[in-house]
Amino acid sequence: MTIVRLSDTIASNSSYARHILTSANQNDTNTTSTKAPVDLKPTMDITLKQLDSYKDEFDADIKNRLATLTISREAYGNALENRDVYLAHPPVFSNKLSIDAPITNQKSSGRCWLFAGLNMLRQKMMKTYNVEELELSQPYLFFYDKLEKSNWFLENVLKTLDKDLDGRVVQYLLKDPIGDGGQWDMFVALIEKYGIVPKAAYPETYHTSSSSAMDTLITSKLREYARVLRSAHSKGGSEEELRRLKRGMLEEVHRVMVISLGHPPEKVTWAFYDKDKNYHEFRDITPLAFYKDHVQHDCTQTVSLINDPRNEYMKKYTVEYLGNVVGAEDVHYINLPVEDLKRYAAEVIKSGRPVWFGCDVGKFLSRSKGLNDPEVIDFKTAFGFGFGLSKAERLEYGESLMTHAMVLTGVHIEDDKTVRWRIENSWGEDYGNKGYLTMTDRWFDEFVYQIVLDKADLPQKVVDVLDQDAVVLPPWDPMGALAK
């Protein structure tokens, strides 16, 4: 999709619009200016005369009055829902997975990446064991993710002891040390170390479904620990002393986790009935054995593909300080054109397998209809303007990044072109079409940033990119965003 430029959609009767139209005609590319700085006055306040002018201009158009009467009563997404768009994209797909697993619900937490990962993995298990329902334990991985992130944070505190406290790196580390969000490679690091268990073996607690209070408690302690470690270092504390302090800190975090969530199981029993009403039982399985023997998907042989038009394609990227498990593989991406991501994802879905992906889900989303499309909410008719940033510019200016992970379970293809995609979400059945969303192809172009595929599903030339030395992006780069 080619995004409609702001100059094509903005109301043309304002001075700002005339400026944008003139600028767009002169240069429609995003370049760094080489002109001398404009000598502006230090400040320019809003005058009463200006406000009178704005009011007169607004009141002169009767459509503005109608817009106010309509839109001031309810959310933009409801008031401006574009009927033509959602009627053009019904939730019908030429290629859809044969299994519709029960919709899951992350509730008031940022665990979507864990839900999406486990929802993707359960598809094969449901076929193998001929079951109608199966849910794997997100709380189990959530427990260890919090503990590992705490250790990750404290290790980074030790690495940055000689950096300025008010410097950008240290302040970045202190901002959100154990947020709920994550990346695919962080998911892999957890299951490779701790395995997987059925949901019944480690179910939800209050603090898994509503994580903010526990997160706040642990975050407060971690920042305190950072001060203690930095203070001990400034007073000449030895590495042995700092490590001893850190061990005690992790023990306190572990205590909070167990009190809030309970001890994770060391062994589990998996018992179920298959579709033919036959009973099956597997006793005393370790979580790692459950993952290796029953899930049977080698996640170490997967690849994260991203579409980041700011940066060079067919290159390997990583983000500094991004991760959760100390000693695990770094988070790595291969950057490709979005058309490649769509083509590879469609082929996997056509073969009957799901695809984990990350996107900026809140952009142009009709929650009631469960549709993501750049025109599903008609801002232009109501406000007289559209949006003019390209995908690269949205990343550069902080307007967009990956916010949510879900699973692709279907694709509609017409004339050999992908048209729309079926999404299994983790917000419960009350959102969208009984928990499923539809994403149009043009929305995929603009707001999907990442998909995960097996290496075997990719051309060798793409897999070979993994052999490159990774380009290291700074910690605050949008490619380091965590799905929540």
Per CATH, the superfamily of the largest domain is Cysteine proteinases
Q: From the 3D coordinates, which CATH architecture of the largest domain would you assign?
A: Alpha-Beta Complex
| CATH topology assignment of the largest domain | Cathepsin B, Chain A
Q: Helix coverage percent of residues?
A: 40-55%
The total count of helices amounts to 19
What is the CATH class name of the largest domain? Alpha Beta
Domain count, please report it: 2
Structural class: alpha+beta
Distance between the termini: 26 Å
The major pleated sheet works out as: 12 strands, mixed
Low-confidence stretches: 1-13, 24-31
What proportion of the residues form beta strands (DSSP E)?
Answer: 5-15%
Mean pLDDT across all residues, rounded?
Answer: 94
Count the E strands: 14
* Envelope shape: globular
Rg over CA atoms, rounded to whole Å, is 25 Å
Give an overview in words:
- By secondary structure, this protein is of the alpha+beta class.
- The chain folds into two domains: 78-97 and 298-480, Cysteine proteinases (Cathepsin B, Chain A), CATH 3.90.70; 131-267, no CATH class.
- It contains 19 helices and 14 strands.
- The chain has helices spanning 6-9, 15-26, 48-59, 62-71, 76-79, 83-88, 112-129, 138-159, 168-175, 184-194, 206-209, 212-234, 239-261, 287-295, 338-350, 379-383, 391-396, 441-447, 460-463; strands at residues 95-96, 268-273, 279-285, 302-306, 315-319, 333-335, 355-359, 365-366, 371-372, 404-414, 417-424, 436-440, 448-454, 471-473.
- The strands form two sheets. Strands 1, 4, 5, 6, 7, 8, 9, 10, 11, 12, 13 and 14 form a twelve-stranded mixed sheet that branches. A two-stranded antiparallel sheet has the order 2-3.
- Strand 10 (404-414) and strand 11 (417-424) form a beta hairpin.
- The longest helix is centred in the middle third of the chain and has 23 residues, at 212-234.
- The radius of gyration is 25 Å and the shape is globular.
- Mean pLDDT is 94; it is low at 1-13 and 24-31.
- Keywords: Cytoplasm, Hydrolase, Mitochondrion, Protease, Thiol protease.
- Homohexamer. Binds to nucleic acids. Binds single-stranded DNA and RNA with higher affinity than double-stranded DNA.
- Its EC number is 3.4.22.40.
